[in-house]
Amino acid sequence: MLPNHKLRKIQRAALVALFVVLSALPIFAQRRERTIESWKPLHYDVNLAFNEQLTEISTARTEISLEILKQNVTKIDLDFGEMAIDSIVIAGAPVQFDRTSEQLNVTLPRAANRGDKLSVTITYHGRPKDGLIFAKDRDGKQSATGDNWPNRVHQWIPTLDHPSAKATASFTIAAPRRYQVVANGKFINTTGQCGHLALEI
C-alpha cells in the first residue's frame, strides 16, 4: 500500500489531468477551420438594407467573384449561418443549393476547372445570430455593429471564412435616414433619401 502523501499526489495529478481533458472538450466542439482547396474568393460585393427599426436585415445581396483551383469542381462550399436564403444565381440563372450546419453548398450548373472564374450571387434576409450585433448603444439608441473576429463574419455574409482566404470587398449599406453609417475604407458616395451609403474597402 502506498504512503498517504504519495497517494494524495497521485489523486491530485489525476484531478489535474481530468480538468485538462474537460477543459479541452469545448475546443473540439468548435466549428471546423476552413482552408483554401477547390476555389478561392477574389472579391465580395455586399449590399445590405436594414429595416426601419434597425433590428434586422430586410434585404441582403452578396456577389462573390471567385477562381477555381482544381479540375472538375461541381460545387462551391461557403461558410454561412442560419439566415433565410431567397435565391442563388450564377450567370443570371438560379442554381440548386443545400445547407448543413453553418455551411452553404452551391451546385454549379456545369463542372468548372482550374483557372475558371465565376460569380455567385446570394440574396437573403433576416437577423443573424452573431457577427452583426443589433443592440442599443450607451445613449439608448439602436445600433448595428459588425463584430467578426475571429470567424463570425459568415453569420451574416456568405464567405470562405478563414484568414488565409484573402479577398477585397465593397459594401453598399441602405439605412433609414436618421441613422449614420460608419466604416473604414475608401468612401465612394451617398445617395437616396433613406441614407444610402456606398463604401469600398
Model description:
With 201 residues, this protein is mainly β. It folds into two domains: 1-30; 39-200, Immunoglobulin-like (Sandwich). The protein is 13% helix and 46% strand. It contains one helix and 13 strands; from the N terminus they run H-E-E-E-E-E-E-E-E-E-E-E-E-E. The strands form three sheets. Strands 5-4-8-2-1-11-13-12 form an eight-stranded mixed beta sheet, with no helix packed on it. Strands 3-7-6 form a three-stranded antiparallel beta sheet, with no helix packed on it. Strands 9-10 form a two-stranded antiparallel sheet. It is elongated, with a radius of gyration of 22 Å. The N and C termini lie far apart (70 Å).
Shape: elongated
CATH architecture of the largest domain: Sandwich
| Beta-strand content | over 45%
Side-by-side strand order of the widest sheet:
5-4-8-2-1-11-13-12
Question: What's the number of extended β-strand segments?
Answer: 13
| Fourth CATH level, the homologous superfamily of the largest domain | tricorn interacting facor f3 domain
CATH fold node name of the largest domain: Immunoglobulin-like
Distance between the ends: 70 Å
Strand count, sense and barrel status of the largest sheet are: 8 strands, mixed
Going by helix content, strand content and strand pairing, the class is: mainly beta
- How would you state the average pLDDT, rounded? 84
